[in-house]
Backbone:
């Protein structure tokens, strides 16, 4: 009976350690917020978050993504370069919000939205913008750009948006 109890205890520990997920190695060394990390308000001085009065949205075009993808396509790189150029000319900070369409579970969409925001963040870092000036957040399928449930709306909802911290 003791052996069986020990076996169950070890099995439970192994199971729990498998549930302890780490950040993906895809963005190893990236300091941006992940879905499960600290709230946005704690990241930048003054409590800036994507929806605060201290963040200007709509200054830059959103980066669009293909279905179930977080790859910044060549057709979208000019949008990232426009942001990089503006960031190089200022000392402002940036919040990148990742969004998905409505398909998929809430957990999956939050993760995909974060990967999209992180991919755009990495493209900006590769363009010479300091990592400490860029924060990410994922809203998944929440707050769609178009609430309709069709291909055209889904294409608009698969995006990363920029918020410039004043």
Residues:
């Amino acid at each position: 009976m003791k052996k069986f109890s020990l076996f169950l205890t070890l099995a439970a520990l192994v199971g729990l350690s498998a549930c302890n997920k780490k950040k993906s190695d895809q963005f190893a060394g990236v300091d941006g917020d992940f879905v499960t990390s600290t709230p946005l308000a704690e990241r930048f001085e003054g409590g800036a978050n994507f929806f605060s009065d201290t963040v200007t949205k709509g200054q830059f075009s959103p980066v669009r993504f293909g279905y179930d993808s977080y790859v910044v396509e060549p057709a979208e790189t000019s949008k990232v370069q426009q942001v990089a150029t503006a960031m190089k000319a200022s000392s402002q900070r940036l919040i990148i919000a990742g969004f998905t369409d409505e398909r998929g579970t809430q957990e999956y969409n939050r993760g995909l939205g974060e990967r999209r925001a992180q991919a755009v963040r990495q493209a900006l870092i590769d363009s010479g913008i300091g990592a400490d000036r860029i924060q990410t957040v994922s809203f998944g399928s929440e707050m769609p750009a178009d609430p309709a449930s069709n291909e055209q709306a889904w294409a608009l909802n698969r995006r990363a948006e920029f918020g410039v911290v004043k």
Q: What stands out?
A: The domain at 23-165 is CATH 3.30.1330.60 (60s Ribosomal Protein L30; Chain: A;). The CA atoms of residues 61 and 79 lie 6 Å apart.
